[in-house]
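Please go through this protein, sequence plus structure tokens, and consider how the sequence yields the tokens. Keep your notes short.
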Amino acid sequence: MKQLLLDYWYLFQDPFIASLLVGIILPLIGGLLLLRRAVFLGVAVPQFSAAGLAIGLWLLPWWPGLWQEFLDHGHPEMSYMFAFAGGGAVLALGAFSWWESRHRGGTEGLLAAGFAVASAMSLLFLSMGPLGANLVDAVLKGEILYLDHHGLIVLAVVLSLVSVILLAARRPILLIAFDPDLAATLGVPRTLFERLLWLCVGLSVGAGVVTVGPVLVFGLLFLPPLAARGASGSMPGFFIRCSLLGLIAVLASWPLCLWLEQPYGPTAVLLSGLLALCFHGISRLNIAKGPRY
């Protein structure tokens, strides 16, 4: 058993560390979006990130050096892929933020339309890309088991930077989310911190999509926060439970995906959904019992 675990660690140490990073950080970002009632935005943005990645892969033959590396190693430079994936997410967030500031209301319909357009763009440009239909399946599933050291470095740097920024700006971001009028009275620059938040969301989603795939990003952004919301009595407790549930899901998914020989991303998302249902049932049971005197 010990030798088997060592063999698995040698084969999958980079994907394993990457799963821990996204399991801890992405639920925190999803929790912020949930508190801001921007769930629809968080659903659409990963799809725009995937569309940006698809466009980048479609344009790959136009860059001879990157194209040759793709032919030699089976993938282009991670920085190239992240530029398109992160750029797609940031541009989408900027466009939706601008629309919301100019047109009050109707954002949900625009997000739904954007999600449909981004999904179609992802499928179309991936199908026209260098590997055609085979690339569609690989990118959309997010084959984390094939993640290399370069992808892990990009993911770790981006998520670490995002974590430091959000930790430093947590008070004004939360104040704007809960009481924008009080934030304006206190002179908090709302536009600055909102743009900073959207930039962090775009970078983290872009890094996640290009390394672990949009399916896992979708699941970790919202399933752990939804489960933690009903069981948390305080704001710190809510965010701690978000990360804890995400961490449990990504850790427990490793033996399941290897044993069942199934893709890691969908396995982790289904397990996150199961944890969310369990926590929801426990919270409902505690409410039904009521306080004890």
Summary: The chain has a mean pLDDT of 78. The chain has 13 helices and no strands. The chain has one domain: 11-282.
